[in-house]
Amino acid sequence: xxxxxxxxxxxxxxxxxxxxxxxxxxxxxxxxxxxxxxxxxxxxxxxxxxxxxxxxxxxxxxxxxxxxxxxxxxxxxxxxxxxxxxxxxxxxxxxxxxxxxxxxxxxxxxxxxxxxxxxxxxxxxxxxxxxxxxxxxxxxxxxxxxxxxxxxxxxxxxxxxxxxxxxxxxxxxxxxxxxxxxxxxxxxxxxxxxxxxxxxxxxxxxxxxxxxxxxxxxxxxxxxxxxxxxxxxxxxxxxxxxxxxxxxxxxxxxxxxxxxxxxxxxxxxxxxxxxxxxxxxxxxxxxxxxxxxxxxxxxxxxxxxxxxxxxxxxxxxxxxxxxxxxxxx
Length: 329
Ligand code: BT5
What we know:
Layout: H1 2-11, H2 18-25, H3 29-41, E1 45-49, E2 53-58, H4 65-68, E3 81-84, H5 90-97, E4 106-109, E5 130-137, H6 147-163, E6 169-171, E7 175-178, E8 181-192, E9 197-207, H7 223-226, H8 239-260, H9 264-272, E10 280-284, E11 289-297, E12 303-306, E13 312-315, E14 321-324
Parallel strand pairs: 3-4
Antiparallel strand pairs: 1-2, 4-5, 5-9, 6-7, 7-8, 8-9, 10-11, 10-14, 11-12, 12-13
Helix pairs in contact: 2-3, 6-8, 6-9
The structure holds biotinyl-5-AMP (BT5).
């Protein structure tokens, strides 16, 4: 009943009386009032004016199922939607639930206690200050094509941010940056055999309003200098709008890839919005650090770099980190 009351309040521009609602649902006005209060506790601002009734003033910027699903315009991405107040890591939760999840299912949380980056790094995920989610994908592609998914997600995210009026860039392979600072990260993990993929977990963390004064143990001292959040670039950030828009954009680019078996559509955006193409970068591997010029991203999602002698190398994303010549980017 609570959900249906909310639906009616959302549809109505003006107020609706407690009496009308109680007739509609065949319950007492006290029962209606209790449901209204419970919605208020969830963060909905509901005005109640004597003799006029209830009116919805504002929605909480919640990422719950009932906020997202009615407005989600996709065929399969996010159609199965799991919302959790808190979890260690949405990528880990997808792996635990794997078999019970349909292709394109999404897990979203408000807070990660052990958010993960690549290569064992951490992803700082404070409560409600970001969007943290993972999508399970079951494409019929060989494992070496999995890095393409990261490029598709990066392109979709750039597109979503452009619609918000925010110009961001991609620091190949998985960082979304604004200027010299990181605003979002992508973690693509794969489970499968040599010849075929079992499933891919695409995890994304976007900083929407990180409070840098909020020091917690996992917060790295230096992070404040190299991280930023969308709230610094736009006054009107809605996590809900961004998540909806990303899921829709991602589906478009992902479907294009499945249909054509190439990621040209995504690559166009990745190249155009690259933070590193044409620049001198530091390529950091476990055993070495080398300076190279970043040339291009190829159709496999690899980074083409050139050394001082003009030798060209194709770098696969897995084991490398990229830095700017003198700074993070
Ligand atoms: C990434 O790794 O950028 C991938 C981040 C993916 C996070 C999502 S959230 C949902 C899903 N569930 C998970 O558990 N993870 C995914 P990497 O390129 O390795 O970058 C990690 C580095 O970014 C860290 O070592 C920090 O320096 C920095 N960092 C950590 N938290 C950050 C934050 N909130 N904003 C900006 N930079 C951050």
